[in-house]
Write a structure and sequence with these properties.
With 360 residues, this protein is of the alpha/beta class. It has 2 domains: 197 residues, D-Maltodextrin-Binding Protein, domain 2, CATH 3.40.190; 135 residues, Periplasmic binding protein-like II (D-Maltodextrin-Binding Protein, domain 2, 3-Layer(aba) Sandwich). It is 39% helix and 16% strand. Strands 1, 2, 3, 4, 10 and 11 form a 6-stranded mixed beta sheet that branches. The protein has a 5-stranded mixed beta sheet with strand order 7-6-8-5-9. α2 links the parallel β1 and β2. The longest helix is centred in the first third of the chain and has 20 residues. The termini are far apart.
Amino acid sequence: MKKRNIIFYAALAVFIMPAIISCDSREKLYIYNWTYYTPDSVILQFEEEFNVRVVYDEFTSNEDMYAKLLTSTRKGIFGSLTRLFGRQYDVVFPSKDFVPLMIQQGMLEQIDHSKIPNLKNIDPLLLERITYDPRMNYSVPYFYGAGGVIVNTARVPNYEESWSIFAREDLRRHMTMLDDMREVMGGALAYLGYSVNTHKSAEINAARDLINNYWKPNLVKFDAEAFAKGYANGDYWVVHGFPEAIYEEIIELPLMEHTVFFIPQEGGPSYIDNMVILKGSNNIDLAHEFINFIHRPEIYAEFVDEFGLPATVNVPARQYKTGFSFYSEEDLQLTELVDYLGPALDLYSDAWFNSIRAGD
């Protein structure tokens, strides 16, 4: 019995000691966001202005984010331990197709518009496309954008701006695609002339077969975490990914002048990422302050300039923007917004997890 008590208290100390050791008495805001998505300079400014500390964790896919948050809401001893010793996040950045799911699951606090006056800066044309939460009751748009293809033109001087680049056997073992079901399957569906949100099993299976038979054999791997670093160090010549991740890795390298980003001519998936406040947040007022801070025009311009992105969501920020963009708002017209799939999600999951990613 004594031995069990020693083990218990030793384990408890592992969780409690960091809190005891920390002498930072500032209020804390816990953020769970995509990698390469909010500049350090923006976080620092928020911390200084509001005299708080931001604790910033990252995820690489909506699926991983959702699974982690769902675990923390489980009932019983496992869920209780997760909430006690894990992060209780305040602001999270899910994509458009996951917001309805999180609303249905009761995972989100309602947004108090009176605490976010900068909502007036959000593009009204974009709000017309936000069918999942048109009145921003539970979510506030952060960025409207798309992934695409990044090419090292020093290694690949001749190419078409098409998804077909991943079928090129001469580039075998020098290419990666995102480890992201909707992004990869959306690209295949668009290439075949189908909607990225199709519910038709024949079209989903055709996309699966295209990826398995023609794209996957040429890839080093599916990678949503290190593709930018691999591209920067020359391991990969063609990558499917987000330009902001590449930009952060190569901005000071000669490779920058040999890098091209394109949205394939066949189109592909686009996304709206959102800021939401998790149910049970310990800092609801501060969470509202953070969302309002992000949508200050000069702050939003700093965000998009940092990553080479257009100011797609915040209209007055376009006047403050000074840097270049990998693509424009007009380029996004090629794309189709990813929607919540409902029951059809099972068809995509079967194709992705039980076929394309099986055995990897």
